[in-house]
Amino acid sequence: MMKTVAEYMDDLKEKTGSDYKSAQVMDVQKTTISNIRKRGLMSDETAIKVADTLGIDRGEVLLAAAMARSEGETRSAWEALTKRLSAAAVLLLLVTAFPQEARAAGLNDNCLNIHYAKSWEEDLSGCKNRINQPGAKVREDSRVS
Predict the structure, then answer these.
(1) Which of 4, 22, 32, 63 lies at a CB distance of 3.0 to 4.6 Å from 28, suitable for a disulfide?
(2) Residue 24: its pLDDT value, please?
(3) Tell me, what's the pLDDT at 91?
(4) Burial classification of residue 2, based on how many CB atoms lie within 10 Å of its CB (0-12 exposed, 13-18 middle, 19 or more buried)
(5) What is the pLDDT along the chain (145 residues), one digit of tens a residue?
(6) Where are the domains of the chain?
């Protein structure tokens, strides 16, 4: 499950020692931190600063910030996207970590058998790089170009 804005703020406070120090490190006003805590909302710019300070992927915090600001169908769309991304990440991790078991389960080494992942070929460059490594056991007809 994805973290909320409040959980990222708690992680930030734990890392820096206080909300005051978090504000200093991120070069924002202390009131910015207070408002985020009160409202549970943050701007995209602040989300990037939070991610950078925590040393985590910017997209993760940006997604949490966008979800917190949205309602109704928009929020449902964000939630559906996070579920799909999580499922794709888990599958990719399993295929990469356990290639023999994946083949036994009928998954192809090229990692692009996931029907919606085909359009994300660029995002799957880690998978593509693994496949194109010298000595990789991949059928020639399934090699990613």
Answers:
(1) 32
(2) 95
(3) 72
(4) middle
(5) 678 999 999 999 999 999 999 999 999 999 999 999 999 999 999 999 999 999 999 988 998 998 888 888 887 887 787 778 777 777 777 677 777 766 666 655 455 444 444 444 444 555 545 545 555 454 444 444 4
(6) 5-69, 80-142
CA distances 87 to 1, 48, 82, 84, 90, Å, are: 11, 24, 9, 5, 5
- Give the chain's largest Cα–Cα span: 59
Top CATH class of 5-69 equals: mainly alpha
In whole angstroms, what is the distance from residue 79 CA to residue 14 CA? 27
Q: How many Å apart are CA 50 and CA 46, to the nearest integer?
A: 6
Whose tokens are 């769309």? That residue is 77
For helices 58-69 and 5-16, give the axis angle rounded to 10 degrees.
130
* Rounded Cα–Cα distance for residues 141 and 122 (Å): 19
CA 14 – CA 54 distance, rounded (Å): 10
135 CB-contact burial (10 Å; exposed 0-12 / middle 13-18 / buried 19+): exposed
